[in-house]
Design a protein that fits this description.
With 477 residues, this protein is mainly alpha-helical. Helix content is 48%, strand content 7%. The chain has a domain at 3-274 and 418-475: Ribonucleotide Reductase, subunit A (Orthogonal Bundle), CATH 1.10.620.20. The two termini are 35 Å apart. Bound molecules: benzoyl coenzyme A and fe (iii) ion (FE) (2 copies).
Length: 477
Amino acid sequence: MTSNIDYIDKIPNNVDLGRDRVLQRALEHWQPAYMGWWYDMGPNESHNYDVYLRTAISVDAEGWAVFDYVKMPQYRWGIFLVPPTQGREVNFGVNKGQPAWQDVPGEYRSMLRRLIVTQGDTEPASVEQQRMLGMCAPSLYDLRNIYQVNVEEGRHLWAMVYLLHRYFGRDGREEAEALLDRRSGDVDNPRILGAFNEPTPDWLAFYMFTFFTDRDGKFQLSSLAESGFDPLARTCRFMLTEEAHHMFVGETGVGRIVQRTAEVMAEHRVDDPDHVRALGVIDLQTVQRYLNFHYSVTLDLFGGDVSSNAASFYTTGLKGRYEETKIQDDHQLTDATYKVGTVKDGRVIDEEIPALNALNERLRDDYIGEVQAGVDRWNKTIEKSGIPFRLTLPHKGFHRQIGNFAGQFISPGGDVLTAGQWNAKRDEWLPGQADYTFVQAMMTGRVVEPGKFANWIAPPRRGIHTQPIDFEYVRFN
Ligand code: BYC
Ligand code: FE
Ligand code: FE
């Protein structure tokens, strides 16, 4: 098997892959399966395109973002951990003060594996959800961006698979295979978390997804970057460097859509959604409905408001709070409490519960703060065109399937309704078939001329990595 070394060299890494024969063999089996998955489930019809992509070839300032034309199946999916911190400790929970673990603590093995598998599962899921969108991209710039996001989600899968292979032996290898077997939206073998089984049928949904759902990625990875299990912490820390671009694509994508709509509304002095649509742009009411959908399904990804799992993850030292080491408290949370929302006597009220059980809710609140800031920036864009419409985040309890609000019928304003009242308003609050049909009809065919953009979206302010906006970001061959 002389080919081993050859292809291990093709996996850029800073984990000394070449020295670990067992790991090499495990990855050798997994790599062809991964490529099979990419050919089947990666971006449709893209395999021969030359795409102007960044590749991480090392973790230092010069190596983490190298730009060049790449055919995606030849993308070098590498394995990178940020360099170790000398003397790092477990920084929270009952094991606080112990040296950070370099191996899996036996008693926490299954819990840790589950966290890694859940994280890993989301990465290929998102690629599956987005695989048809290249066919109707609004520009070469946007096409390149979705492909960039897709290859990096592929790399994030590699990052978790590396941990499974390196630290979990046989059951880790089985879990790594299962990550390639589940399919987003599959009835028999779906992805693990709800939002990752929802379709991403058009570019408005894609930008909402990268704004809202990739940001869940940021907050979950930040919590795992605090982990007492050092290899997980270091892996997630490096993944976060890539996540920033995904959220940028989402925020600027939605921002460019609302900018274009607001400009057209101002120019033609129209505000009726039907008139706005007739001018070939997406009415802001539809944008609001998409926002309501993606926000609410992403809030569910944080898990139950009251969670004993979250308490265990924290107490053991496996998963911290957002920016744990910057928080000034005992990092044990023995006496602390936290407010969670719940429905009582037909109203939403706050309830104080032990902070340890409220860690999902706390992370969700941290997330909401950041999301609100992004929505405020979209509103500034609308305001600049002199249009009075404002986008808003619906109430936290709106359209929830997980936690205290699951099974309740909460309006975007936070009122507790009956099922009948809520359902009567559903199409006002969430995208319906008519919205999807309209948006998709607008997005047939892709714009392939460098520097040209579909009518429904404004051009970006600048290109990628010092290139001009009319650069040939994708060559179709
Ligand atoms: N859908 O105690 P609970 C990203 C389950 S995104 C379905 O309330 P827990 C990315 C839960 O598993 C970041 N099931 O929740 C973004 C549990 O099941 P069991 C992904 C759900 O465990 C874009 C039960 O309900 N990373 O990277 O405290 C593109 C009770 O759960 C859901 C992570 O999530 C749901 N939404 O927290 C690409 C980090 N929510 O035990 C990538 C790792 C809960 O009854 N995962 N359940 O069988 C975790 O930290 C936790 O598993 C969760 C759930 C925060 C997800
Ligand atoms: Fe990711
Ligand atoms: Fe991402």
